[in-house]
Amino acid sequence: MHSRRALLYMPGDNWKMITKSITLGVDSICMDMEDGTAINKKAEARATIAKALQELNFGESEKLARINSVGSGWEKDDIDAVLPYRPDGIVIPKVESFEQVEWASRIIETAELKYGWPLNSVRMVIGVETARGILNLKEIAAHPRLDAIIFGGEDFAASIGAIRTKDAIELLYARQAVVVACAANDLQAIDIVTIDYKDIEALRVESEFGARLGYSGKQIIHPAQVEPVQIAFTPNDEAIAHAKRIVETFDASQKEGKGAYSLDGKMIDMPLLKNAQKVLARARAAGK
Ligand code: COA
Ligand code: MG
Fold first, then answer.
1. Which amino acids bring their CB within 6 angstroms of ligand 1?
2. Shortest CA distance to 10 belongs to which of 229, 224, 223, 228?
3. pTM (2 decimals)?
4. Is residue 221 located within the same domain as residue 243?
5. pLDDT per residue over 94-142, tens digit each?
């Protein structure tokens, strides 16, 4: 699966930002037709994204297009405008039911058959960021076509009438519900946007907290956010070295007939091994 530590949005009608995004070494580039695009610019965004998909070389960055939510009235024109130019994936915001995922999945599969692309080669990433979406997470997250779920903090706060704070305590329940649903279905979990994009220290703190919750990546909105987020969602050298030691010592301990043993004065058993393996998998996915 493509690594999505940092997923950068820009308004789909903004050619300048799209061309800038391909120079940033960012994991995923998400050209937006939804809320980042003004209502009177939806058509222009569709045409600009189609042009970018045809003309620009995105290098190692994943090229994604975000359509408007299913039921908005714009979603069909959005997906029809960009899909023929073969984005790496389609992002669907504010998903509230399995059927909405299925709607997009059918359209993508039809395109794959029509153009002779391998089945499932166009990936799907969805936003679950409303009260109804969180309630229906169990069914939604089980859709076989999904790669990742994005949790939108601002949309969720608006959906429940929460007052946003810097530590985001008001989001915690839903933010963790998304991680759990992702882990249960082997999906990546992509965390909230830090909208105060000039405050890099706040971004670092929020990114590290998201990583501790179990998120594998974060949405971003500005070039200055790329590197701090990539660092926060890549296990550091110390974490990798510790994970390697657990993996190395675990086998020997099992052979000695011990399920639990002591390493540096701390107890190690199966769940710690599993977590260490996850750390190493994330490090590998990030090219470390
Ligand atoms: N993607 C690519 N390039 C971006 C960018 C983005 N999201 N945001 C800013 N840039 C570029 C600018 O074009 C500018 O380029 P230049 O130096 O070549 O002129 C450079 O980065 C510095 O930008 P800056 O002046 O600091 O920001 P701004 O005031 O122009 O824009 C925002 C600030 C928040 C309006 C802008 O970052 C933005 O629109 N972000 C995306 C918002 C979005 O898509 N929201 C919906 C999803 S949550
Ligand atoms: Mg949103």
1. 8-11, 16-17, 20-21, 32, 35-36, 193, 197, 221-223
2. 223
3. 0.96
4. no
5. 999 999 999 999 999 999 999 999 999 999 999 999 999 999 999 999 9
